[in-house]
Design a protein that fits this description.
Elements (H helix, E strand, L loop, with lengths): L9 E7 L4 H16 L3 E10 L7 H20 L8 E7 L2 H11 L4 E6 L6 H11 L3 E6 L9 E4 L4 H17 L3 E8 L5 E3 L2 E3 L5 H9 L8 E8 L3 H11 L4 E5 L12 H10 L4 E4 L4 H14 L9
Parallel strand pairs: 1-2, 1-4, 2-3, 4-5, 6-7, 6-11, 7-10, 11-12
Antiparallel strand pairs: 5-12, 8-9
Helix pairs in contact: 1-2, 3-9, 4-8, 7-8
């Protein structure tokens, strides 16, 4: 049986709200589920409205802020006082303001909802996976606030091991006994593992055992799955549908010469293709720290209005 890792897994979570009850309901329900399981801690609810100043903006912002408080208290009012709730309204370009807030508040997870048929879905996924100084969890409209099956695409790289480690902790906190780790062969080339070129075909189980050996499993069983596929993102989606996966967890980086490479483009396509929630993992460290500093520098001086 799983045993609990330290909680929360993500200390500060940004939840981007549309402030339209129907559109926010699924996202708030998902946030509440994660908070109750100890996956996320401090919650920052942020709404951004267009950068077009007009009379009545202050009153409009005050109304939105009051609605945000009422909506979040209705769904998350039973959370313990140890999980603080913050609410903020900002004005400006949506993605820029979300990135600026994430950088300035040292957010380590951005929780974003979206409609599957929205024309800007691909653009939003691309920008967030490339630029966010934190992990990103995109929850499509209609997603159930429940996680029973987790899928982790891997390419035997250190970043993939990091994503698998996050998925294991998440599974343990939720109380899952196992998750699935998927390796996709998308051509006949040799794969790279710990800097050496070698074929893993025919010896997958041994390589997988070596790959997961250093990880703390917290009592969670990791089930390996190997699939052939011309297009990694499509294969990930098909496996997720076949196994009725509730959450896909993956990294934005991978080995540049792997037979199952997990680059940002694959993460972006998975975000767009997936019918369920996708968590794209980014870890704090030099690269994320530099990205955070760069974002703050680039966004400094842009129009920003806060209403507390």
């Amino acid at each position: 049986m799983p045993y609990k890792p330290p909680a929360p897994l993500f200390q500060r979570t940004l939840v981007a709200l549309h402030c339209v009850a129907q559109q926010d309901a699924d996202l708030l329900g998902y946030a509440a589920m994660l908070a109750r399981h100890g996956v996320i801690g401090e919650l920052h609810f942020v709404h951004v409205f267009p950068d077009s100043e007009s009379p009545g903006d202050a009153e409009r912002a005050a109304t939105i802020l009051a609605d945000m408080n009422a909506q979040t208290c209705k769904v998350l009012g039973d959370l313990p006082a140890s999980i603080p709730l913050r609410h903020e309204v900002r004005r400006g370009p949506l993605v820029d303001q979300l990135l600026a807030y994430a950088a300035s508040q040292h957010v380590d997870l951005a929780l974003v909802g979206h409609r599957r048929d929205h024309p800007l879905r691909r653009s939003l996924a691309r920008k967030l996976t490339k630029l966010a100084p934190c992990s990103v969890l995109m929850v499509p409209e209609g997603a159930k606030a429940s996680v029973k099956r987790i899928l982790v695409p891997i390419d035997f790289s250190p970043p993939a091991a990091d994503a698998l480690g996050v998925a294991i902790k998440l599974a343990a906190l939720i109380g899952l006994g196992e998750l699935t780790a998927l390796h996709v062969y998308f051509d006949q080339s040799r794969t790279t593992y710990e800097g050496a070129d070698e074929s893993i075909r025919g010896d997958e189980v041994a390589h997988f055992s070596t790959f997961v050996a250093p990880l703390d499993k917290f009592g969670v069983k990791i089930v390996p799955l190997f699939r052939e596929g011309v297009h990694p993102a499509h294969t990930i989606r098909h496996v997720a549908e076949e196994l009725a996966i509730d959450l896909t967890v993956m990294e934005t980086r991978g080995r540049t010469k792997s037979a199952a490479i997990l680059l940002g483009s694959v993460a972006q396509e998975t975000l767009v293709d997936s019918r369920g929630p996708v968590l794209v993992v980014k870890h704090s460290g030099t690269q994320v720290g530099l990205l955070r500093a760069l974002l703050l520098k680039l966004l400094q001086g842009e129009a920003e209005v806060q209403f507390d």
